[in-house]
């Protein structure tokens, strides 16, 4: 017996990929290509570029487009590339959408506008403007903890009527609201918080967009593979085994960008430094990450 989930143009096991930088702090084009190829070889069937984990607040518009082009060259046409384009400005977000489409992206990941905290009718108008402007499918990114603005379930239900709004990256921590939308739409939902990958997949999500997959893509994919094979006991074991690393990478006080880069640098994979205002992980935090990685992958 296998379990079938809703089809999506974006893949199932997506990594929210970090953006590698050189030691001087410039975009590491070759490193990004190497890392993207590694993630695909290890089980990712889609990549999200220029998201929060990719340090989008501190990369330029030109760097964002160059990253998409470089990764497309590395992974070819078969791997969906989703471009993060969220900003606080509808006009700027539209410009980024068009640039991402030109650079070779397959889809757009769009947050609610942050800081200004627009009401829900303005939030909906923002998303419709982006979806109208570009020819790519759109993933709504519901992460009120960062943006300060929730995309209410009722707003998502209305936006689902737009032909190019295709799904949601869910970091809302509102399981009831998520199930409400899943039960009433065909939107492709993606767990954006690694601790919720199995829980959301079990109620019909299309997959995950994982920060932890930067370090353990094969393990993240294995959780979904086990569930699809109806081996729910194994899926549960795999999810729970990853919990210490998930907590250390995403919930122990450091941003996922910082922890992912610290771990990848220790593993000899392209990452490089983070950009200010972020600071590198301490030696103690890095050692803990490396120990938890070893415990998960070597046991």
Explain what you see.
With 299 residues, the chain is α/β, with parallel strands linked by helices. The chain has one domain: TIM Barrel. It is built from 13 helices and eight strands. The protein has helices at residues 29-41, 61-75, 90-103, 120-133, 144-147, 153-159, 175-184, 197-202, 217-228, 232-241, 243-250, 256-267, 283-298; strands at residues 13-16, 46-49, 81-84, 107-111, 138-142, 165-170, 188-191, 207-210. An eight-stranded parallel β-barrel has the order 1-2-3-4-5-6-7-8, surrounded by five helices. Helix 8 links the parallel strand 7 and strand 8 (207-210). Helix 3 (90-103) runs parallel beside helix 4, helix 6 runs parallel beside helix 7 (175-184) and helix 11 runs antiparallel to helix 13 (283-298). The radius of gyration is 18 Å and the shape is globular. Pfam families: DHDPS (PF00701). This is 4-hydroxy-tetrahydrodipicolinate synthase.
Topology (SSEs and partners):
Elements: E1 13-16, H1 29-41, E2 46-49, H2 61-75, E3 81-84, H3 90-103, E4 107-111, H4 120-133, E5 138-142, H5 144-147, H6 153-159, E6 165-170, H7 175-184, E7 188-191, H8 197-202, E8 207-210, H9 217-228, H10 232-241, H11 243-250, H12 256-267, H13 283-298
Parallel strand pairs: 1-2, 1-8, 2-3, 3-4, 4-5, 5-6, 6-7, 7-8
Helix pairs in contact: 1-2, 2-3, 3-4, 4-6, 6-7, 9-10, 11-13, 12-13
């Amino acid at each position: 017996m296998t379990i079938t989930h809703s089809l999506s143009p974006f893949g199932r096991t997506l990594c929210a990929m970090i953006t590698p930088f050189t030691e001087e702090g410039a975009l590491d084009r070759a490193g990004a290509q190497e890392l993207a190829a590694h993630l695909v070889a290890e089980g990712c069937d889609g990549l999200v570029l220029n998201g929060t984990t990719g340090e989008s607040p501190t990369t330029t518009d030109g760097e964002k487009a160059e990253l998409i082009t470089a990764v497309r060259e590395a992974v070819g046409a078969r791997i969906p590339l989703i471009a993060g384009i969220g900003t606080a400005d509808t006009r700027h977000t539209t410009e980024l959408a068009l640039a991402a489409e030109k650079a070779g992206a397959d889809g757009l990941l769009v947050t609610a506008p942050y800081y200004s905290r627009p009401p829900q009718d303005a939030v909906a108008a923002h998303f419709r403007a982006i979806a109208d402007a570009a020819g790519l499918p759109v993933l709504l990114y519901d992460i009120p903890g960062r943006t300060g603005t929730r995309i209410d379930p009722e707003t998502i239900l209305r936006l689902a009527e737009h032909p190019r709004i295709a799904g949601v990256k869910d970091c809302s921590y509102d399981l009831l609201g998520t199930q409400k939308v899943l039960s009433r739409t065909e939107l492709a939902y993606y767990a954006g918080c690694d601790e919720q990958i199995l829980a959301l997949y079990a109620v019909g999500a299309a997959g995950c967009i994982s920060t932890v997959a930067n370090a353990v893509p094969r393990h993240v994919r294995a959780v979904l593979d086990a569930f699809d094979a109806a081996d729910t006991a194994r899926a549960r074991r795999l999810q729970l085994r990853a919990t210490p690393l998930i907590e250390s990478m995403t919930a122990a006080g450091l941003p996922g960008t910082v922890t992912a880069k610290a771990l990848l640098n220790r593993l000899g994979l392209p990452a490089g430094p983070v950009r200010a205002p972020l600071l590198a992980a301490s030696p103690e935090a890095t050692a803990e990450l490396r120990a938890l990685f070893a415990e998960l992958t070597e046991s």
